[in-house]
Amino acid sequence: MNDIQRINAERVMPFRNTNEDDDVIDLVKLGSVLWQAKWNIAALVVIVTMLAVVAVLNIKPLFWASATLMIEEKNPQVLSFQQIYDPADTTSEYLQTQLGLLQSRALAERVVNELDLTRHPLFDPRQQPQPLFSLRGMIKSLGVAEFAPGLFHDDDSGPSEQDIFDQVTQRVRDMVGVQLVGKSKLLAITVEMPDAELAAKIANAWANGFIESQLDASLDMSLATTSWMNSRLQELRGKLKDAENTLQAYRESEGLVDVDGVATISANELSMTGNRMIDARRARAEAESQYRQVQAMNSGGLDRLASVPAVLGHPLIQQFKGEVAKAQAKVDELSRRYGDKHPAMVAARSDLAAATASLQSQVELVVAGIERNYQLAQANESSLNKSFNSNKAQIQDISRKEFKLRELQREVDSNRVLYETFLTRLKETAATSDINSSNARVVDKAIVPIKPSKPRKSMIVSIAAVLAAVMGIGLTLLFEALNNTFKSTDDVENKLNVPVFGVIPMVAKKKRQQIAHMFEQNEDKRFCESIRTLRTSLVLSDLDTPRQIVLVTSSVPGEGKSSIASNLAFSIAHIEKVLLIDADLRRPTMARNFDFPVGTPGLANLIAGTAKLEDCIRTVGNVDMMPAGMVPPNPQELLSSSRLTNILDLLKTRYQRIIIDSPPTQAVSDSMLLATISNALLYVVRAESTSIPMVQKGVGQLLQNNAPVTGVVLNQVDLRKAKRYGYSYSNYYENYGETPQPQR
Hints:
four-stranded antiparallel sheet; Helix Hairpins; alpha/beta; 27 helices
């Protein structure tokens, strides 16, 4: 076995896409796929378009009518005073409130009553046509109601008037739409229904009903306000009277005629009394100081009293002190010349004594005056203090009375003002109660529409056609993306890194019963040519070292490996002596395909030693065949025995090529055992059937066990469908007959 010619397992596992352009969207391929599906997409578009046409023709046309309202920023002021009911607001919340009022149920009920819509055939459920199918009627006809009378009780009375009114009101609300017109203060009232004239009537009635409801609300509010103000006015009148009575009673109890007439002193007089009291207190302090000085010097004799500043500063005291000083000076002068008994000395001393006596008498008079001044200052201060306190208490009492009087007067004044205001407003409200204005007006009335607004038939049909085309393209691409199978040789080589030895076209269904004989019978030229191509690829791959034992296997049953093996054997028989062995000991097909007698010995009998080699070989045309023989209970043990190797060694001496039909790799592990004793392995893959991961798993398992995976055979290829992927295998086989139709 030539290891160089084997495919290295590392080349396949992991299976990497060697095509650098795989991540690039192949627009040509996608375009080819869509082009091949163009008739299917076109058929889908035609069908959907026809259904859309039928649907729009059966849709009842709807007519659209619209009335426009303008919401004023403020209610018009009829008079100069502010009206009682003024809901105007300049903010966007006010417009939203008006929008909510226009969508209210009360307005809908007003319109229903005004137009008498409960009796209109479009709304009255009693005038509606009965449904073609009634579940209740069918159940009653079957007689089930007799067994459950509580579930199917008869109600011949029908819906009540209130129920009908509620249903009609709700239907009208559903048909009417209200919306703001841009950023303006305009509101559009739209009505859409099958009756064009009624749509205009409802839109206009809705707008007029809103204005009338605003006027009614304003009138009701004015009347309610007038009633409330009357009751409130009576309360204010009573409060004013009570306040006046309280003020008068206080004046009488305090003996006050007016605040200005109350007997009291003024604040200036109180201030002057305070100033005089301060002066008296200052004079008393000075007199007291002099008096304290005199009292302190009283026990020190005449000299000390005379030295007191208050005494010393007296003019008479200074005069008498001067006379005493002169007398003393005279005595001192005469004493130096005369004796004590000298008449001049006696006269001088007599003058000194007289001057001293006069000084003492005058000092005593000054001291007595100081004492009297002190007593008078005390009396004056006490008197002024009493007068000030009396005046202060009198002023405080008058102030309290003044505050109380003014408080009562303010209460009277406020009650009078409030009473007069309410009386004025009441008169104004009563005078203008019948003058009302609305904050809304109709800008455009609704007119009867001429053309229906719905359905827009051409647009619906166009959209349906476009959506059908998009859906067809999407489904085509989706199915293409979900088709995770091998569609071409490029898929096999890119996903497996294994060369493709042959592309076998799909065989017509009527010929599949004899597919094992097709090359022998030479009926399908394309099929036969593809088998020759497979034979050529196999022969050219082993020019240096011929591969005698060729194993044919697949991933799962039904991929055509047995048919490929038998037809390949017939094609090789033209150039080499070949032996075809059915090694699928679990589900053999050779004996059935070639009508071998039941019990024909084969490979299992030969390995078990129950039959001879000559008995196990049958010849069909130029091909020697060895069937599986009797199905053994232990096929894996037989295939793994050394007898099989010895048998193949013997057969290699007799045949140039031995082709073994092996079980699928994903069904059992028999193919792994057979691969170890083979020189080449052909892996059959059914196009657009076997998933890529399953084939990768099968090939990977073989390569991990050093199996000689030589190439892949892409079987049952739909040549016409292959054009969708850009592969025109049919052009290669165009000289060999018509392309068979794919199996449905």
